[in-house]
């Protein structure tokens, strides 16, 4: 692909050409012509001597422009190629995104259409079943209306069969019609034997329970008697402890009359004995209270 080249620096021939064009324009408008600038040829460069109308500064400027021009052209070409690359990348990205969006739209629309078709199919089937159901109801109502005797008979039959007692009565009467008398008697005997066996088992269990209750009652009476006897013994022990406490108090009073040096040790022993007796009496009183709480008089 050919790219346009941009020259920021023009040579002397180009400057001369532009001056001639300006003179031609001025001649049309009546302005005086400007003096022409001598063109710089290959011979002037080879000789190294500046021509008429050209200075050393112009020569240096021309040489600098000629040296810089290739670099400027290369930079412009690279910028244009980079711009073209970015443009192509942008176009390809836009194209890919558009294709993806179109694909997503087509896929979603396909799924939506499929779902709508399934819903329509389900609705059609439901409508068909509804029509069949109500059609059967209409047929039944019409048949009952056209055959009132049959409808009454069916209603009476359902009224007889639905209750439990009616079904049982009908079942037994039907068995009587289709079974012989001997088979009915044998069946009744078997049922009686089963009932008798069940009653015998219940009697055995009742005897066992009665014996267990009797033994428990006897044990309870024995325990009650033992508790009463224990309560009496505890009361006797409480009375004895009470007597011990009285004797300890009397002994403590006697020891109080003796000199303190001789009776100090004995007073301590009597006091500890009285405390132990009181503690035992409280424990025995608690045991008696528990026995009386069971309803056993002492």
From TrEMBL:
Q: Respond yes or no to whether keyword Coiled coil is given for this record.
A: yes
Can you tell me which residues the record assigns to a coiled coil? 185-219
Lineage: superkingdom = Eukaryota
Composition-biased stretches (Basic and acidic residues): 43-54
Keywords, ordered alphabetically: Coiled coil
Q: Where is this region: Disordered?
A: 1-54
Q: What is this protein called?
A: Uncharacterized protein
Which organism was this protein described from?
A: Acorus gramineus
């Amino acid at each position: 692909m050919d790219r346009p080249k941009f020259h920021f620096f023009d040579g002397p021939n180009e400057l001369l050409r532009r001056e001639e064009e300006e003179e031609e324009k001025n001649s049309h408008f009546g302005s005086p012509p400007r003096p022409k600038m001598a063109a710089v040829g290959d011979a002037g460069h080879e000789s190294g001597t500046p021509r008429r109308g050209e200075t050393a500064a112009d020569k240096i400027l021309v040489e600098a422009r000629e040296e810089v021009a290739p670099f400027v052209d290369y930079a412009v070409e690279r910028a244009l190629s980079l711009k073209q690359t970015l443009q192509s990348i942008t176009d390809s990205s836009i194209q890919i995104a558009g294709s993806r969006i179109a694909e997503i739209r087509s896929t979603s629309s396909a799924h939506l259409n499929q779902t709508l078709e399934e819903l329509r199919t389900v609705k059609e089937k439901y409508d068909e079943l509804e029509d069949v159901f109500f059609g059967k109801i209409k047929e039944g109502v019409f048949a009952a209306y056209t055959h009132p005797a049959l409808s009454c008979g069916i209603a009476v039959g359902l009224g007889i069969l639905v209750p439990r007692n009616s079904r049982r009565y009908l079942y037994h009467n039907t068995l009587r019609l289709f079974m012989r008398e001997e088979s009915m008697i044998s069946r009744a005997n078997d049922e009686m034997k089963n009932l008798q066996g069940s009653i015998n088992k219940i009697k055995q269990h009742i005897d066992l329970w009665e014996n267990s209750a009797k033994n428990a009652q006897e044990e309870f009476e024995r325990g009650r008697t033992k508790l009463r006897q224990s309560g009496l013994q505890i009361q006797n022990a409480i009375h004895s402890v009470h007597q011990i406490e009285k004797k300890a108090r009397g002994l403590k009073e006697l020891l109080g009359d003796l000199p303190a040096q001789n009776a100090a040790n004995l007073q301590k022993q009597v006091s500890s004995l009285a405390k132990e007796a009181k503690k035992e009496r409280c424990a025995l009183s608690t045991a008696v209270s528990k026995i009386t709480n069971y309803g056993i008089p002492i």
